[in-house]
Amino acid sequence: MGEEHMVQIQVPRVKLGNQGLEVSKLGFGCAGLFGVYDISVSEELAVSIIKYAFSKGITFLDTSDFYGPMLSSWLERYCIFTWFHQGLSNSI
């Protein structure tokens, strides 16, 4: 299928609590990135996957401690920190 036939999808946002915060209605579970299901991906591919999800409007990332102690710090270093430095913090 060529790009001219691709449908542009943007995930809707919902209010989170009563402080004015909004997150995507659909979340992205990060467990599969780090071997929770016995399959892991490279850091480069993980960053690409998360950036793609973010480009579709997904701003709610599930980073449970159950997924391993390194996941939260990895996401902070490679994704969230980068987004803030790229000026995307207003979109998150």
Structure description:
By secondary structure, the chain is α+β, with helices and mostly antiparallel strands. It has one domain. It is built from 2 helices and 4 strands, in the order E-E-E-H-E-H. The strands form 2 sheets. It has a two-stranded antiparallel sheet with strand order 1-2. The longest helix has 17 residues, at 69-85. Keywords: NADP, Oxidoreductase.
In sequence order, what are the helices and strands, one letter per element? EEEHEH
Give the N-terminus to C-terminus distance in angstroms.
31 Å
Summed over residues and divided by their number, the pLDDT gives a mean of 78
Please state the CA-atom Rg, rounded to the nearest Å.
14 Å
Helix and strand composition category: alpha+beta
- Number of structural units classed as domains: 1
Question: Which overall shape is indicated by the principal axes computed on the Cα atoms?
Answer: globular
Low-confidence stretches: none
Strand content: 15-25%
- Share of helix, binned: 25-40%
Put simply, the count of helices is: 2
Largest sheet features: 2 strands, antiparallel
Q: How many β-strands, per DSSP?
A: 4
Reading side by side through the largest sheet, how are the strands ordered? 1-2
Which key features would you list for this structure?
4 strands, two-stranded parallel ribbon, alpha+beta, single chain, 2 helices, 92 residues
Give a brief outline of the structure.
By secondary structure, this protein is an alpha+beta fold. It has 2 helices and 4 strands; from the N terminus they run E-E-E-H-E-H. The protein has one domain (9-91).
